[in-house]
Amino acid sequence: MHTAKTLRDYNKDIRAALDNAFLREAMDKFATAYPTGRANAFREYDVAALIAKVAEVKDQGLKRLDGLFAQFKAEAEKRGVHVHLAKDAAEANALVTRIGKEAGCRTVVKSKSMTAEETLLNHALEAEGFEVTETDLGEWIIQLRHEGPSHMVMPAIHLSRYQVADLFSQVTRQTQPTDIQRLVKVARRELRPKYAAADMGISGANFAIAETGTIGIVTNEGNARLVSTLPRVHVVLTGIDKLCATLEDALHILRVLPKNATGQAITSYVTWITGANPCAAAPNGTKEMHVIFLDNGRSALAKDPLFKQVLRCVRCGACANVCPVYRMVGGHAMGHIYIGAIGLILTYFFHGKDKAKTLAQNCINCQACKNICAAGIDLPLLIQEIRARINEEDGRPMSSALLSMAMKNRKFFHGLLRAAKFAQKPVAEGGYIRHLPEIFAKDHGFRALPAIAEVPFRDRFARLRPQVERPVKRIALFSGCVQDFVYPEQLEAALQVLGRLGVAVDFPMEQSCCGLPLSTMGEKAAAQDVARQNMAALAGDYDAIVTLCASCASHLAHGYGHLLGDSPEVQAFAAKVMPFSVFVSSLNVAPERFQQTMERATLHAPCHLCRGMGVTEEPRQLLKTAGYEYAPAELEQVCCGFGGTYSAKFPGVSENILKLKLADVARTHAETLVTECPGCVMQLRGGAIQHGHGFEVRHMAEVLAAHLKDK
Fold it and tell me: Which CATH class is domain 64-299?
């Protein structure tokens, strides 16, 4: 389990995970199967409406947590239940321990509970002499191995049946088979006597319904029913964020939870418990039941204007299911106790800055988690904000502080890029950095890196600017720093296309980097300065602000609103921002304008285009219109592994995501891989060259220019 570590130590853990062949195979199988299962489960539903309803229900509950707690307490106590509120993990553990001791309990059975994992309840109980047995199959396995969960729903997904068979052989002192069904029977045989002998049962709760004092538990194995009924004492440990006003509110969440978690239409067992029930093992014939609500910072979070949305989380684990980083390294390398994108955030609030500091950097900002979240939480944005808070509290890393200083001064920043052209000469050859310095070679040699261009686009624009007499549109072209100084030929191709299609193009010279790298590093103040500079530079009577970089487009259109506030000025600016393919598609160009060669081409959809901007169909249609045979790739919308500075911090993960992507492209037998982001071009082209793939990697503007007829 990840603890506070340096980036270097953390990369060692990641490398170990990447070298774990079974882990990689298991993660790949699940990542491949999950989207299909989820799509089937949601086939007849309006997914967006369901998610919006969950967000509404949770937000309404968070506004009156105190009132819901008071109502739940009153209703539950009418029915013989003891209700407690624990301010933190230590108090929650102390309450459970006291309840167990006062009731004369020695043996405890537990059903799966992430809240109990959060408080490290098992450790606390065992230190006081209690015998604790996890009864969820996955949780029992990792308890026996002295590990934490590697997924919130599937805690032992990282283990093979052979490892489990060896483990069970040790526990039973008999050689056990590797057949999964027989291993399940072994677990049942070992666990069943524990239920009957246990004094106390501990469960979590997915719902706590205020109007009736009812708890709801969602499981796939039914063990929670045994835990909550057979022992004479039942303790429920749950976060105060699980409070719902009504059963109807809970059912809205239940409609989404199993579908999003595992692709099931509904989970196997949904258990509702209202009041302390009869129990033959209890001295007075009635079960002693306690519900402990854990605060642990949740009340403060509920009042935070931005971070309160964290408490919408229904613990489905889907943010890990679709995360390309999680797919590579699993939960132990991408979490402390809570894993995946939500774990990167919750670790900061529940377990402290030190444990979150390095962990929070392990987000590639692909937006997949936001796109899949059952409660509509803007997870990537919150991770950026966590980084910003850590920078404020702990001091900024030298690297990000220096980059921040440089980027705030456009002329100085561009001067550095121009100077880099000369500094690279000893290691540059044929447009690429061919001889990496030894300090970088070991981890960063998985792709060929492009050299800085001899002449940036901004120095070429005056002579290349198309002269259009009666323009159909007038636009400002936003380049971003990579296309301006590394890939100016992509912008040149765009000028050719736009000019021939009757578009007047302006290139405001005061524009600079969009500022996304600053935001992802937590340099919020500098990112705000850069945003203001670009808005001023791009102010003018333009029909659109067009960019060839999907990441820039998403940040200009959405990121500036977060940085600068959602003012009318920012809204008007954002409304003009258009990705290149969207703008060209809006011109309704006929196929006759292009040479119909039917070259086979496939697409890589940049993360910030397909998810950040919601653009998927325009690039596909443009390829077909421009005379290419579009060959769909299975992983078209899966991240390429670049992620800006991510690939520099975590080269091992970046490399393995890239290999997965390139192999998928190769299966299409396409001659050309087309994308719409210079960072993706850098990653994919560099990888294709380094690993000897036969396809070209080109920007959408380049393939359109190659086929566009003169007239």
Answer: alpha beta
